TrEMBL record:
Gene giving rise to this polypeptide: rumA
E.C. numbers: 2.1.1.190
Natural source organism: Acetobacter pasteurianus subsp. pasteurianus
Record-annotated active site: C378
Residues in coiled coil: none
Keywords, in A-Z order: 4Fe-4S, Iron, Iron-sulfur, Metal-binding, Methyltransferase, S-adenosyl-L-methionine, Transferase
The protein, known as: 23S rRNA (Uracil(1939)-C(5))-methyltransferase
InterPro entries linked: NA-bd_OB-fold (IPR012340), SAM-dependent_MTases_sf (IPR029063), U5_MeTrfase_fam (IPR010280)
């Protein structure tokens, strides 16, 4: 006889799953449930509790807008109304900052992008007996769901997938699997294909035909697990992206914010966080600068020393800096962080670290004690860890903007501004 258990969902945990207390007193996390709901659970053959039925639904519950929900792993929260997701993401960032040691937090700003606006796609490719499958992994699975529809992706990306399926099916370079990275830029689709086999001469011809037929300026290629730089497999035009009125030529597979709208939200939040008394001689130290998403807007307010560890991205930034007040530096900040004495002279430190956070670099920032720090976070857990050093160093939170640029997912973007009064002379409890 199947064991069942009726209980209430206490809250949404960090991955957006509902937290419940099981009969033995332990916590379990149940997908597709919402805080306050009364639900029925069943125990599966492995002894894990699974959702059987929602007995009393939350008013924040909705019918998922995509037919692939529960199969595609790209969206895990389509059963939740967007306004409720944004509210939960704001609360998650608040909790992260409180965990870091901050109290008396200011009111947060919150922004949310529109459906069908995502301009970046990282897709899995699988060869099947009857063709090629392109899509996303199902949640907690290696299985790939063929992406035949999507309420998140920009229509230009979705419309190109049938042509990709047809071409990739004919490639010798794809034995079992591949990865397909697509950026929608000003110049059109920019594609990086990673395959499990070498690219043959006929493969290159087929990719060149695809580029011509679909008006794709560049298709780059590299073999999976190859640590070198991708090579251009087909090019039919220039690759261009505009950032704050500056045109850059980004390298293959460049990281950009998920949507054009969210990029603007992040830029506006960062600029809003700058001190009002900046002058043209002041220096902003920007860490993890990438191709200049924040660099160019910052340079309109002060001189910018921009540090980036990925040489091709920095080279694209360098080529677009003519006539600006930007000084680019190539530096792997995870292994060679900018030192505290170099940071101390900065009017502002702006950083947009990777998902794991700033780690060693954050220790140097906290020791350098710049008066103003603007931290762009894509991971509340890393934010809590990094910001705890700032709380100990005497900083306060000035403002926070939460951006929901990953619709119906648990991913969260936030821009946090920290300030330390210059009159305070202590450094982690020691005299300077």
């Amino acid at each position: 006889m199947t064991e069942t258990y009726d209980t209430d969902v206490l809250y949404l945990a960090t991955q957006g799953d509902g937290a419940v207390r099981t009969p033995d007193g332990r916590m379990a996390y149940i997908p597709e449930t919402l805080a306050g709901e009364h639900i029925r659970l069943t125990k599966d053959s492995e002894g894990k509790w699974r959702l059987a039925e929602v007995l009393l639904p939350s008013p924040d519950r909705q019918i998922p807008p995509c037919s692939l929900f529960e199969h595609c792993g790209g969206c895990t929260l389509q059963h939740v109304k967007p306004a409720a997701i944004l509210q939960w993401k704001v609360a998650t960032v608040q909790h992260a900052l409180q965990k870091a040691g901050f109290s008396n937090l200011p009111a947060f700003s919150a922004k949310q992008v529109q459906p069908h606006s995502r301009r970046r796609a990282d897709l899995a490719v699988r060869r099947q007996p009857d063709g090629i499958m392109i899509g996303l992994h199902a949640r907690n699975s290696h299985e790939v769901t063929d992406l035949t529809t999507c309420v998140v992706l920009h229509p230009d990306i979705l419309a190109a997938l049938p042509a990709f399926r047809a071409t990739l099916r004919s490639l010798n370079a794809i034995r079992r699997e591949a990865n397909l990275h697509i950026n929608l830029l000003d110049s059109g689709l920019d594609v990086l294909l990673q395959t499990d086999g070498p690219l043959t001469a006929p493969d290159r011809v087929r990719l060149a035909q695809l580029a011509t037929e679909q008006h794709i300026p560049r298709i780059s290629w590299q073999q999976i697990k190859d640590t070198g730089l991708p090579e251009v497999a087909a090019q039919s035009g220039s690759v261009v992206q505009t950032i704050a009125s500056h045109q850059i030529a980004p390298p293959a597979g460049t990281f950009f914010q998920a949507t054009r709208e969210s990029e603007q939200y992040i830029q506006e939040a960062v600029v809003k966080s700058l001190p009002t008394k900046l002058n043209r001689r002041d220096v902003i130290t920007e860490l993890y600068a990438g191709c200049g998403t924040l660099t160019f807007p910052l340079a309109e307010h002060a001189r910018v020393n921009a540090y980036e560890g990925y040489a091709p991205a920095l080279e694209a930034l360098k080529k677009a800096t003519g006539g600006t007040r930007i000084s680019p530096f190539c530096r792997d900040l995870n292994h060679q962080p900018l030192l505290a004495k170099e940071i101390a002279a900065s009017a502002v430190v702006v950083l947009d670290p990777p998902h794991a956070g700033a780690k060693l670099q954050m220790r140097q920032i906290a020791q350098g004690l710049p008066n103003h720090i603007v931290y762009v976070s894509c991971n509340p857990a890393a934010l809590a860890q990094d910001a705890s050093l700032l709380a100990k160093a005497g900083y306060t939170v000035e403002n926070v903007t939460v951006i929901d640029q990953f619709l119906w997912s648990a991913e969260i973007e936030a821009v946090c501004s920290f300030k330390r009064e210059s009159s305070r002379r202590s450094r982690n409890g020691l005299s300077r």
